[in-house]
Amino acid sequence: xxxxxxxxxxxxxxxxxxxxxxxxxxxxxxxxxxxxxxxxxxxxxxxxxxxxxxxxxxxxxxxxxxxxxxxxxxxxxx
Length: 78
Prior knowledge:
The protein is an alpha+beta fold. 35% of the residues lie in helices and 22% in strands. The protein has a two-stranded parallel sheet with strand order 1-2.
């Protein structure tokens, strides 16, 4: 977190990031701290844990997601 960037952005884009982060709630809390009130957080993640493969391991992915898991992470932050 950077105090000089607190609530500085209208939009935070996280493309292919969350699957690499061990502490997703902590990371998202920091990202949201940089977002203006009413701003947008857009992200994508690899889906379907059943498709986790050696590619994911080589790419440094810690996980793949189901929609409900993402909802749970976001709901826990509210």
